[in-house]
Structure formats: C-alpha cells, structure tokens
Amino acid sequence: MFQIRTDLAIESRELYKEKTSQEVPGVEVNKEEKDNIRITRVKILDKIGAEKMGKAIGNYITMEIPKLKNPDEDLKEEVSIQLAKELRDLINNDKTTKTLIVGLGNWNVTPDALGPKVVERVLVTRHFFLAYKKDEDETMANVSALSPGVMGLTGIETGEIIKGVVEKTNPDLIIAIDALASRNMERVSTTIQISDTGINPGSGVGNKRQGLNEEYLGVPVIAIGIPTVVDAATMVNDTMDLIINSMKKEAKIGTEFYSMLEALSEDEKYALIKEVLEPFMPNTIVTPKEIDELINNLSIIIANGLNISLHPGIDLKDVNRYIR
C-alpha cells in the first residue's frame, strides 16, 4: 500500500478524513484565524487516536502562514511573537528552568540546515550562570544550545550525543528544531509545527533515528519543525489524483473509460508510480529553488520566537539589535 509521507499532524488528520469521511477518533481539534496566520491545534487524547494518526499522544500546534514564502519584516515579527506565545502556553517555565536548544540536521545540506541555523542565532546564557554562580535572573533564562550534526558526519547516533549532554548538563527542558516533510508543496516553508511529544531526527527524509522524547532523555522535549521538502512519489500521487478527477469529469458516467477510472485503486496507483519512478528516482525528495533564502528567514523567525519566549526581560527590539 502506498504511504503518503508527512510529518505534520494536520496532514495525518486530513488523510484520515479523506479516506473515511469522518473525524479521527480520540483526537480533539481547535482552529483559530488571525490576520496572516491560521492556527490548528490537534490534541491526540488516547491510544486509538495515536494509532489512527501514527503519532504519539500529545499536543500538535500548526501555524500556517501562506505569505511566509516572501515575508516582510512586519510578518517575520508577527510570526515570531505568535510562536513565542504558543511556546509559553505549552511550556511550564519558571525563573530557574534550564533549557537546552538542539538544532537537528546537516548544516552542509541546505534543506536540512534549519536546526543548525537556528542555533547560530539563539541567545545562549548558561556559561554566564555558571560563571556568576546564579540559579536565576530577572531578565535572562539559563539557555544552552547544541548542533549535534548527523550520523554521516559524526559516526555517532544523534540521540546518543544529546543524551550524553543531558546527563552532563542536567537541563529541565529540551527544545529540538528540525526540518520536516510535507505531503503538500504549498505547506513547504509556510508551516510551523510545535509539539510536546518529542521528535525523530531524519524523519523528514525517511531516515528515522532514535526518538528524542522524555522517555529516552528523561526530560520533556518540545519539537519545532518546518517542512522543507516533499517526497517525489507523494507529489506524483497527488498529481495523479488531480488528473484522474479531471478525466472523470470529462468522461461520461457509464462509459467503459469512466468505469476504468472509477475502479483504479490506491494499490494500482502505487504500482504505477513505483514502475515509473523506480528506474530514475526511487527515493527522491523535492525542495524549492529558493531554499537558501527561505531557510535564512525561517531560522531568524524561530530563533527570535525562542529568545523572547525563554528570556523574560528580552523582546523583539532587543533581539533584532544584538542577534543577527
């Protein structure tokens, strides 16, 4: 059976509804509309919902910003502020909370470099707390950051690196940033997903490693992800659906051609996709040609959102003055 590749909870819900014409059992959904941002909050309540969605029990917040492909400074600030608000609502933070920010991904591959780019721009302060032997501060939080790279660069599982750092530095919270995969090209670089269930490094390119979650690391893990790629087979599948639907509209009901289109199953479509792609690009992913600029803009937005959400005495004016 052909499996649509997506890391977004909102798309897993859409796929289930397309298949069954019903809401996912064990899942609660709330939506909110703002001027430039659509927010969908998906809460997986139980094991049934987790099984149907293919995701862990917990909260998944999706911010869709269609204009994010060509953002101006006002939009960047609006998204950063909303991201900070969502993080504050999700995180049980206080003045003594120690946070480790982890930028997942490969800094040598642009679509996978979101995490490391964010880490370059976050305001790290743990060394100040150690130097001055402080447990809390009125304006700054205790924040450390790490870009562990990928196994192909280090020869070490990403999860092992992070677990070692956690055991040595004892953070109270981990925030992991990673590039994701979407089933829809329109959501690439325009959608931000926040979840409190952790993350699987490499999931965006179908190369899942050890899951980074509270069960494995011993501390809560908040995941922030943005889709930067689409699976080629998924694009072909969606294109075929559009073509078939268009041809069905043109064909007369009851004709042999219409009956053939109507009878085409998902398995048959998958077999055709596999036959066409296998000789040329069996495991290809697609990313926009402007990905360099997109990653740069997105990393600024996420870093700013993190900085103003974690540090109580810092706002966007301070961040934009010192962090570039």
TrEMBL record:
SUPFAM superfamilies noted in UniProt: HybD-like (SSF53163)
The protein's name: GPR endopeptidase
Gene3D superfamilies linked to this entry: HybD-like (3.40.50.1450)
Gene name of the encoded protein: gpr
Transmembrane segments: none
Organism: Anaerosalibacter massiliensis
Keyword check for Glycoprotein: no
Gene Ontology process terms (BP): proteolysis; spore germination
UniProt cross-references to NCBIfam families, sorted A to Z: GPR
Top-rank taxon: Bacteria
